[in-house]
């Protein structure tokens, strides 16, 4: 019997709504902070399959979520393409050399940097009951490219957007290379036991419509089509954060299996405008989870009501913040589980 989350992603509407939280394995959990301090760096944790397995399972043991998301990072792809990757405390990730001034062809690929991740997936799979769905993931080519080009996160992705206008051929080659490796990477995760995958597109909101079509929709459609050729029944969740009114086109044209939506989207609008029957995942504002109180319960009910007529996976509109009190997560779980549709 597949778990409730997997059933829902496959298009079934049950009485109960499954839930998991983006970034559920992370710094808001004291047990994560403890293991992280013991292991040193974030990458040391990711590359220690035993520790990464434990981190993946921590939120399942504590909260019994319906989905476990692999503990890794979207920047493992640039790392395997040959960039150096560092996570600087308080500053975020750094990739070098950055592709704004170095040709893609100057990188020497290190594909074996993906292998330890598959080891984590199979260990997690062995540690989960059938009721919990194992989710793999990757970043979308556009979002991953913004880090590869600029060498770090940036507020409006201007260097990457400028490069895409200035030299679309060179930029397109970067996107194509990410597409190809992402298909291999997601396939490796599925072969190791992932039952569904999510494509995180954290920065899709910075693109103008024609560029959104070219750099977000087209590469994601290529990934979905390649994955579905290999695994016809694999649910693929697309999460184009900030896509707003472009969401319906993204969902139709990429042919993802489920729509991840952020908190800026009105759930009532989404319920009316996304393709009929398409499972939806989202979209409570993570800041409401930080503040708690009655406003939290009220907003949870509003999201659940809005999506009552279609398959719905309850989630936040973006990752859980590191200062979120555990008690608020417990309140959220009671509100979702206690809801009588
Ligand atoms: O629990 C989970 O969701 C699974 C693991 C996961 C991580 N990163 C672990 C992580 C997932 C799915 C991601 C995705 C990711 N990584 C995204 C897309 C989603 C989003 O949040 O928009 C992006 C843009 C990244 C790149 C990244 N990784 C940044 C910008 C940072 C630094 C900022 C920060 O939050 O620290 C990371 C580091 C990172 N990835 C941490 C975790 C738990 C924090 C590392 C630490 O312990 O210091």
Helix/strand class: alpha/beta
**Overall body shape:** globular
Total beta strand runs: 9
* Tally of discrete structural domains: 1
With helices defined by DSSP (H or I, 4 residues minimum), what is the helix count? 15
Tell me the name of the CATH class.
Alpha Beta
Query: Unreliable stretches, pLDDT < 50, 5 or more residues?
Result: none
| Span between termini | 24 Å
Mean pLDDT: 97
Strand % is 5-15%
CATH topology: TIM Barrel
CA-atom Rg in angstroms: 19 Å
What kind of sheet is the major sheet? 7 strands, parallel
GO molecular function: uroporphyrinogen decarboxylase activity
Binding site for substrate: 23-27, 73, 147, 202, 318
Subcellular location: Cytoplasm
Family: Belongs to the uroporphyrinogen decarboxylase family.
Report on the structure:
The chain has helices spanning 4-9, 30-39, 42-46, 49-63, 76-80, 115-127, 141-150, 158-166, 168-192, 209-230, 247-254, 267-273, 286-291, 293-306, 326-338, and strands spanning 67-69, 84-88, 92-96, 133-139, 196-201, 236-240, 258-260, 280-284, 312-316. α6 runs parallel beside α9 (168-192), α7 crosses α9 and α14 runs parallel beside α15. Strands 1-4-5-6-7-8-9 form a seven-stranded parallel β-sheet. The model has no long low-confidence stretch (mean pLDDT 97). The chain has a single domain, classed as TIM Barrel (Alpha-Beta Barrel), CATH 3.20.20.210. It is an alpha/beta fold. The structure holds coproporphyrinogen III. Residues 22-27, 36, 42, 69, 71-75, 87, 92-93, 137, 139, 153, 200, 202, 319 line the site of coproporphyrinogen III. It is found in: Cytoplasm. Keywords: Cytoplasm, Decarboxylase, Lyase, Porphyrin biosynthesis. This is Uroporphyrinogen decarboxylase. The record marks 73 as: Transition state stabilizer.
